[in-house]
Amino acid sequence: xxxxxxxxxxxxxxxxxxxxxxxxxxxxxxxxxxxxxxxxxxxxxxxxxxxxxxxxxxxxxxxxxxxxxxxxxxxxxxxxxxxxxxxxxxxxxxxxxxxxxxxxxxxxxxxxxxxxxxxxxxxxxxxxxxxxxxxxxxxxxxxxxxxxxxxxxxxxxxxxxxxxxxxxxxxxxxxxxxxxxxxxxxxxxxxxxxxxxxxxxxxxxxxxxxxxxxxxxxxxxxxxxxxxxxxxxxxxxxxxxxxxxxxxxxxxxxxxxxxxxxxxxxxxxxxxxxxxxxxxxxxxxxxxxxxxxxxxxxxxxxxxxxxxxxxxxxxxxxxxxxxxxxxxxxxxxxxxxxxxxxxxxxxxxxxxxxxxxxxxxxxxxxxxxxxxxxxxxxxxxxx
Length: 383
Ligand SMILES: Cc1cc2nc3c(=O)[nH]c(=O)nc-3n(C[C@H](O)[C@H](O)[C@H](O)COP(=O)(O)OP(=O)(O)OC[C@H]3O[C@@H](n4cnc5c(N)ncnc54)[C@H](O)[C@@H]3O)c2cc1C
Prior knowledge:
Elements: H1 10-13, E1 14-20, H2 24-36, E2 42-45, H3 52-56, E3 65-66, H4 78-84, H5 87-100, E4 105-108, E5 111-114, H6 119-132, E6 136-138, E7 142-147, E8 153-157, E9 161-169, H7 185-192, E10 196-202, E11 206-208, E12 219-228, E13 231-242, E14 246-248, H8 250-260, E15 268-273, H9 284-290, H10 293-302, H11 308-312, E16 314-321, E17 329-334, E18 351-353, H12 367-382
Parallel strand pairs: 1-2, 1-9, 2-6, 9-18
Antiparallel strand pairs: 3-5, 4-5, 7-8, 8-9, 10-17, 11-14, 11-16, 12-13, 12-15, 13-14, 15-16
Helix pairs in contact: 2-12, 5-12
The site of flavin-adenine dinucleotide has 37 residues, from helix 2, helix 3 and helix 12.
């Protein structure tokens, strides 16, 4: 006898929350939603590997957040920052790490790391939690979103079609050698008149126009200023790392976010004050004796004389930033004006966007993971 199983009805096939992307934003959102609505059907569609960027974050140590104690601007949009980092949201964040992920953190001068200082611990905590809550993970790539009747979405992948009441876009950005697929969003957003800014490499180093290959491997601490047509538009002290064709380091990566947002990038230079912390009364000879020999040899070869002015105002012309493969994040994404406080699109009810896919970028220091995770948690709290 052949037993025939009835095909599932349309209603039975409908998923309550369909999350596209299994990075920190998507995984955090799924876990928080499941804790809130235990009976709900939640699926994450992930095209490659869960939490791939968590693994490489912070050089394998994963700087997962920051204890914010000042009003310093760390995200591109200050009004958004004030809402995101409200005291209540910071508590939400800490509770999620400790009580839901069971992750103890270590506070290194405000920077939060897993206690083990290993990013694998963070990833393992996520994977355990997803399994504990029986969250359905499907490894497929989304290629299209369609709106069905009665406020239901149809999400198309390379293999299947899914029906969902609420769809959450958590697909991150093209930073760091990803082949993340966004092209399918373009025609949909165009039809709905939704604004999305072009992605550009963020938190990246600069390629330098002049030949600095002689300095390859040099690391020095300087006051770094980004200068556009003689106006200083960014300034911070930090370590500059020289490569064969450019410069990098945290301070350089932070400045690159300001650089990328310039509409006209011509005549932009990096100015290094190599002696910002030295007393003016010190003799030039003593200063030169104290600087790196490789640096002095380079300056001697390329400038007529080494004087105090040069050491305080050494300028390097920027050719470009490095490309996405060397970028930690992307500048650009879905404009914040398009979404409500619960991360729902104002023009498409039931559709949400979180994490790096939004036009939100933070400086180095745990702010980007904090945004990715918090945006997922806030969505779950408000939906
Ligand atoms: C080298 C490096 C170091 C970093 N270090 C730090 C750090 O120390 N601290 C910090 O705060 N931040 C750090 N970051 C940034 C941080 O990792 C990201 O901001 C964060 O991962 C963004 O999370 P997300 O969930 O929005 O996106 P992602 O982590 O990019 O996740 C998006 C997921 O969506 C999937 N996806 C994409 N398109 C599709 C599709 N069409 N269908 C199905 N799935 C899809 C992708 O495969 C991916 O798994 C670092 C980044 C890099 C690259």
